Amino acid sequence: PIYNRMQNVYADQQTSYARLQTQLAQQNTQIAQLEADRQLALNLEPELSRLQNELDAAEKSYALYTDSLEKARIDRELDNSQISNIATIEEATYNPSRVFPKSLMMVLLALPLSLVVGALALYFFYLLDQRIHDGDKIESTFGVPVWTTLPDLEHAQDRSAALTSNLHRVYGILPLDQVDERGLTLGFTSVKDGAGVSFVIDRLAALLTEQGHKVRTENRAPARPGEIVLINAAGVSTNQEAFVLLRNADLILLVVRAKDTTVPMLEDTLHNLNTAFKKVDGVIINRRRFEVPENVLKFLKRIGSRG
């Protein structure tokens, strides 16, 4: 009897196991189907969002269109009602003659107004121009004296006399009384290359030689008694060796090229030199060009001489 009962129990368990296996397969199938439906819903969500946005935009456009259509209908009815009440009083008149402004008056007013506007434009651009044209206001602004102003010789060969005169001004400022005792070293520098430092040194060396002084421009050795040394340390903003060359200079002169150097550039260079050497003895304005044309100056000079 026990064996039979055990067989019956085993058969029941086998039947339950088969039934559970069937249920497991069905549940796995349902899970797979639900997962596929969920993935399909996730894939359709962006499209549904886009369609919903298009639907909202279409509804707004339809509402605006309906409102505009209703306003257009109202305006049409109002226009029809107004047009129906219009009565022709007289024929339209047209006067082709010009009443105002008069052509002559416009011409007379345009001339002084154009002069005023042109003068204001020139003054405005003058305020915006930060280039250094001459030595005016340099000493009052930066506290450095302007030793001289050298004219531009590129377009006027007859200005050599003015150049020589201005170089004599530099010669008169130099402390020549110390040359016999311990010599004199002049350091010439500039904001950047091309300011004419070599030109100034060559012309000043020729002038000093003419006056009987012993001048040296090549060797970097300190000046000996009775000797004047001219040091070329151009381009202090880009040439780091310039500070080394200016270290033994008795006087430091900054050569500024007119119409090429701006006020911020000059201010920065003076600040660097004052920081390094505690001084800048003078400024030389080089290649200054007269704003008035040369022929106009000659004409005014002839008129003055005749007067």
Automatic annotation (TrEMBL):
One GO MF term: protein tyrosine kinase activity
InterPro entries given in the database record: Bact_polysacc_biosynth/exp, P-loop_NTPase
Gene Ontology CC entries for this record: plasma membrane
Chain coiled-coil ranges: 17-68
Transmembrane segments: 104-128
Span of the signal peptide: none
Name of the molecule in the record: Lipopolysaccharide biosynthesis protein
Keywords: Coiled coil, Membrane, Transmembrane, Transmembrane helix
Entry keyword Transmembrane: yes
